[in-house]
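Students often ask what a holo structure prediction actually looks like on paper. The answer is less mysterious than it sounds. You provide the chain, you provide the ligand, and the output is a string of discrete structure tokens encoding the 3D arrangement of the protein together with 3-methyl-2-oxobutanoic acid.
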Amino acid sequence: MTTRPRKPAPGTPAPGKLALPELAEMKRRGDRIVMITAYDAPSGRIADDAGVDVILVGDSAAMVVLGHDSTVPATMDELIILTRAVNRGARRPLVVADMPFGSFQVSNEQALENAIRFVKEAGADAVKLEGAGPMLPRVRALTGAGVPVMGHIGLTPQTATMLGGFKAQGRTAAKAVRLYEDALTLQEAGCFAIVLEAVPTPVAEAITRALEIPTIGIGAGAGCDGQVLVWHDLLGLYEGHAPRFVKQYAELAPLMQQAVSEYAGEVRDGSFPAAQHTYSIPEEELALFEEALGEVRAG
Ligand code: KIV
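The corresponding structure tokens follow.
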């Protein structure tokens, strides 16, 4: 195992860390931004080694890691632990912590307190929050206090019930215009990037063209400045329903199941552990041990 240099204190960019303004530069250059979710240190390291630009510690953790049916139950404390873990594994990628439902809706003060927790306690580089309109004052409060904010519009899973379920958004002219305007106001409020989820391709393209900040698409077509996928979806680790925008690049669940079954079989038939997995004791120490045991048993 290689050792890596310690990270500097939260709020201080680590050496080699992608600078936040570089994302807008990438948009200007036409270089696509690669974002993925991750929830632990090994995944953070793998994403970093694979050249990912941004890691989102998504509230999707509630579903893919913690086994809930929706993202709503995710808590600050859970996401802080996961963000801290990702941060221990990742060096170059920007680490964005997702503000869970109920952690920012109440007031600007609440949003700021929780965003600051992500920065100070978990070493997050930025936070993401869902929504526009009534959430614009939150974005202003956070960016005004120096916490970079990624927006998220279109299908916003925390408020899916209000949106009529998990379905594509902006599919009428009026709703598409609303999304377009939301994107512009989020940029104006200070967001450094915006996730567009489940938005028709031409609508996402129009929004992407209109913005100076990058758009990161998930189910929003190839015209966005970057793309994001959920770790477990991409790797075939999530057994639940996969939306049509998911592309599975590997099917790891059966491989993992096979490995664990093999382990269980070898434990049961006694072939694991073998000699190479065990520790020895010098002959003379073993003799002394047996002698001592004899005395212990004799009382
Ligand atoms: O929580 C999450 O994983 C997300 C992405 C789907 C953008 O918000």
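The first strand starts at residue 33 and ends at 37.
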